[in-house]
Amino acid sequence: IPNFITSDEEKYILASVSAAPKPKWTQLLNRRLINYGGVPHKNGMIAEEMPLWLQTYIEKINNLGVLEDKKANHVLVNEYLPGQGIMPHTDGPLFHPVISTISCGSHTILRLQKMSDATDVHEILVEPRSLLLIKDDAYHDHMHSIEELHEDKIDEGVVNLSLCENTHTSGTILARSRRISLTIRHVPKTS
């Protein structure tokens, strides 16, 4: 969904994330992240208070009704710098039936790879200020990943070009910059 948030909201999110105390961040090999609402594990999550600045975006997701009868109670903030990404993975049954991600800062290319056929790959251009929903077959039957690149080449493998806000032609090179993603989801068995 292009322009799910405004440019001003994007600036507010980026500033709020930048103001997070360093101890909140977990540094991984290829990115860093913050869990808000608690730290999920296979048995659920012990709830923690959600920062006020995130409430608006949680409500926007809840108001869409994409979580069916559930309400969002967890936000995973990921920071990707140019050259950083994430290996192919699934989010597993804990977050079923849908994950929703708001992107801020840079674009990225999300790769969806069918679990039963590694050659069946689709690329999605994820634009700044957009909302990406992964559900149904994309959730159950595919792994998703972001390649560790400094720039992305737009080609016929990008399946959503006609839906994007910006017009890109095949062969266009997009340089990556800092990208912040807010993955907003429901964690069951929360106490």
TrEMBL record:
One of its GO terms (cellular component) is nucleus. InterPro entries: AlkB-like, AlkB-like_sf, ALKBH6, Oxoglu/Fe-dep_dioxygenase_dom. One of its GO terms (molecular function) is metal ion binding. Residues 71-188 form the Fe2OG dioxygenase domain. It comes from the Eukaryota. Its main location: nucleus. Its cofactor is Fe(2+). The keyword ATP-binding does not apply. PROSITE patterns: FE2OG_OXY. It is found in: Nucleus. Keywords: Dioxygenase, Iron, Metal-binding, Nucleus, Oxidoreductase. Belongs to the alkB family. PANTHER family: ALPHA-KETOGLUTARATE-DEPENDENT DIOXYGENASE ALKB HOMOLOG 6 (PTHR46030). This is Fe2OG dioxygenase domain-containing protein. The lineage of its organism: Eukaryota, Metazoa, Ecdysozoa, Arthropoda, Hexapoda.
